[in-house]
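Example record used in the benchmark description.
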Amino acid sequence: LNRYSVQEVFANRFAACLLMPADTVKRYVRFYFDKDKVPLDKRGNIDTYDHALLREIADKMKVSITALLIRLNELDLFENIRNEGNAA
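Model output (C-alpha cells):
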C-alpha cells in the first residue's frame, strides 16, 4: 500500500542530490545562519525569520521550500534549541 513506487522514490532522491548537493546546502546554511545547522525552537519549529532565510536559499537553488526542508532533514541539518533553564 505504498503511495510511491521504488523507482519514483529513487528518482526523487537522485534529483534532490543533483539539485541540492550536500556541500552546497551546508555552505548556504553556514552563510545564512552563521552556524552549521538550522535552529529549531524547543517545539521543533522554524521561526518566521529563519523560514524566510530558508525560502531565499530555496529560491537561489531553484527548488521548492518543501524540497529544501526534506533535504535539510536528510542531511541532519536541523538543530533543536533547548531553553530548559529559561522561563519566558
